[in-house]
Each structure stands twice: as structure tokens, then as C-alpha cells.
Amino acid sequence: MHDKYNPKNKVYIETYGCQMNFSDTEIVSAILSESGYSITDNPDTADVILLNTCSVRDNAERKIHERLIHLKRYKKKNKHLLLGIIGCMAERLRTKFLDEKQIVDFVVGPDEYRKVPQLIENANEGERGIAVKLSRVETYDDIVPLRTSGSFAWLSIMRGCDKFCSFCVVPYTRGRERSRSLESLLKEIERLRGDGFKEIMVLGQNVNSYKDLSSGTDFADLLAAAAKTAPGIRFRYMTSHPVDMSDKLIETMAEHDNVCKFIHLPVQSGSDRILKLMNRGYTVEHYLDRIKKIKELMPGCSISTDIIAGYPTETVEDHKATLDILSEVGYDGAFMFKYSPREHTKAYNQNDDVPDEEKTRRLNEIIELQHKISGKLNKAEIGKIHPVIVESMSKKSKLDWQGRTDTNKVVVFPAYHGIKEGDTVSVKIERSTSATLFGKVV
Ligand code: 5AD
Ligand code: SF4
């Protein structure tokens, strides 16, 4: 049996899905450390393995099911090993995990992470537990996330989503929208500044609908206050919704040098008919008006998007309209997906009538066009010099470092003596692909 306060009780957390999940993993890690557990990055020596899961598309869930088959081996090797499912899939599938997956010991949804230590303890006593209540108030406001990087921090400012896009499972797995207070966020930013952090990614499922009701603060106010509180820190944010992309927010971004000139603004489709069915709450005209304003006030601001191919009833004309908006906006990057029906959502009741091979064909067309657009925009960066915050060793070569420009472009450059994570270096861009810039420090 495990002893809860024995630091030998090591927990390994594997995270899937969006950045909110990565940020949540730091919250769960903090809750566990508080209770005497230690966090390990080695599943082989762990006493508890947690999978922080994603439900947004069917293939995200499939990955977890496959991983569970794999994890059976760990359980065979160590019969005391506990396995917990946390995150969106825990919320969506609930007891199904316990009924159908005998290797799962406990299940915890996104608003019940404070219960993880208790559920581990119960599981040690042989009780297979579940905690999946959604909350209208839980923001983990008082918990200091256990961050692993010393220079880059995720900062969750709100949770949940009230938009109810017809394809999206998030309102059902993460519940209603709620924001943290301005006061507590500024305190956290102040602490991050004191601790030497260089970059903060401000996070929320719908970050620009942030609202601190007690002080009447909206997202633009928060961003302005954050930028002023920590002038030496670079701020980015994700993910914003076109409906809440106000003039005030764009003006605030333009006013502050330490707010990155980068906006992830998912359009999903270029067809008004499909946008209406998706319950997105805007038209192509509104969306393009926002883009115009962004480009007017911040020339050179980079913009990325999400696209869904093959939403129910999507015609070839609708699909062409999506290709058109990609060309018209000229996105620096895009996440592109095939529509995947999700239980509980409104679209789930609509006939998923675009055949899979047609969805694939449309998706490939979208990817190919976007590839060309990003390639062209990245080529235009050659010869320019960008301040880059050093993030990590390059994924492909130990002789190179990588970091990001103010416009969120990944830059790879040869390492040189004395350079370290969190440093800002000037990099002259020498070549590019559609995904990456390459250069050298000047
Ligand atoms: N099918 C395909 N893509 C989806 N997304 C969300 N739900 C679905 C779905 N059912 C995509 C959207 C969203 C991104 C996070 O995932 O593009 O912006
Ligand atoms: Fe999902 Fe729409 Fe909310 Fe984004 S805005 S999380 S796509 S419901």
C-alpha cells in the first residue's frame, strides 16, 4: 500500500490536447505536491500515472484509448501502480472508463482537481472513485501552478465556455465560463516578474470574453494592466473569439510593445451559411472587418486560425468560400481539421453527410493552400532581424536553439557559448519553410 506522505509516491502526468490542459497539469501537479506527492517525468518508476485527456475530436480520444492498451504493460510490471484519467475525456465518459476499462482506478473532471489526492488515497484502499462535477466558480485561483520552465509561464485567466458552437464539446466538458479576479492575476504576474519569467501566455478557452464582474474589468483592461505591471515580460494570449475581438482590444494590443503582435482568431469556415449553422455568432463580413482593423493598427501582426472541413451540409461552394477566406486574410498559420461529430453537441443530431473521403479531399486542399500562404509569408521574413526569446534546444538538432519572434514564429539558430533559456537574442533570418524560420544571432 502507498503512504500518502511518503515523497517516494511519484506521480507521472501525461498531457494531451490544448494548452489549457498543459496549464491544468501544472495545477494538478501543485495540488499533488501540496499533499506530499512528488512529480516525476519517468513513467517507469511512477506509483501513479495520470492521463490528462482531450475530447475535442474523435482522433484525440482514440489516442487515449490506444495509450491505455499500452499502459496495461506498466500495470502488469507493477501491480501497485494506479492509473487515473483526468481532463475532458474524464468529464465526457465518466463511469464508462471504470465500467469498460478495468485498468483505470479513478476518473477526475476539470473542475474537481482538488480531489485528486483523495481519490489516489481511496484507490490505494481499493476504491475506484470518480469526481466529475462541473462548477460555476472553480478557477483554482489560490493555487500556484507547479511550473517546469523558469522563463515561460502559462497563466489561465478564465475557464469554460458559454458560446456553444454547434460542433464543440468544450461547454459540456469544461462547463460554464468564469473568470479569475484582476487582483489575483496581477499578483501572480508580479510574482512571475519577481521570479524572472520572460514570457507569459495568457490562456482561456475564450480568452477575450474575460470579465471580472467585481471590478468591471474586460480582457483589454486586463491586458493593459498586465503589460504595465511587468514591462519586461512579453505577453501572448490564446484563444480569442471573433465576436469578442473589440476595437478596444486591438487598440490596447497596438499600444503596448510587450504585447505580442500575434492573434489566433479561429474562423472555422468562410461560408456565412455554415457559420450560422455552427452558431459562431458572426458573418464573414464581421470577421474580415476585424482583420482589417488588426492590420490597420498593427501592420505585420501575425494571424492564425482554425478551420473545420466537411461540416454537415457543407457544399463544394461553401468549401471554396473557406479557401477564399484563407487567401484573403493570408494567415501565417492554421490548425486544420476534418469535422468530427461529438456526442451532446447540437451538430451531433445533424446528419454527418459529407463522406469521409470528400472531407479528406477538402482538408487536403485547405492544407495545401495554407502551406503555400505560410511559405510565402515566411519567405518574406528572410533578411529581417527579429528579437527572439530563447525557449529550448531545437527539436531536431542539439547544436541549435529555438525560440519565437514577437509574431509567434518559431526560429531555429545555431547555439553559441553563453546563451541560455529566457535570453533575448537578435536573429537575422536566412532561410525559411512554411513552418519555421532559420537564422543566426547577430
Ligand atoms: N470537429 C472538428 N474540429 C473541431 N474543433 C472543435 N470541435 C471540433 C469537431 N467536432 C476544432 C475547432 C476549434 C479547435 C480547437 O478544434 O476548429 O477551434
Ligand atoms: Fe468550443 Fe466554440 Fe467555445 Fe471555442 S468558442 S471552446 S469552439 S464552443
Output the keywords.
single chain, 442 residues, alpha/beta, Rossmann fold, Transcription Regulator spoIIAA, 4 domains, 6-stranded parallel beta sheet, 5-stranded mixed beta barrel, 13 helices, 21 strands, 23% strand, disordered N terminus, binds 5'-deoxyadenosine, binds iron/sulfur cluster
Query: Could you give the order of strands across the largest sheet?
Result: 2-1-3-4-5-6
Share of helix, binned:
25-40%
Q: What is the name of the CATH topology of the largest domain? A: Rossmann fold
Level-1 CATH class name of the largest domain: Alpha Beta
Write out the CATH superfamily name of the largest domain: Methylthiotransferase, N-terminal domain
Rg, rounded, reads 22 Å
| Total of domains | 4
The average pLDDT value, as a whole number, equals 95
For the sheet with most strands, the description reads: 6 strands, parallel
| Strand residue percentage | 15-25%
Q: In the CATH hierarchy, what is the architecture of the largest domain at level 2?
A: 3-Layer(aba) Sandwich
- Name every ligand kind in the structure: 5'-deoxyadenosine, iron/sulfur cluster
Cα end-to-end separation:
57 Å
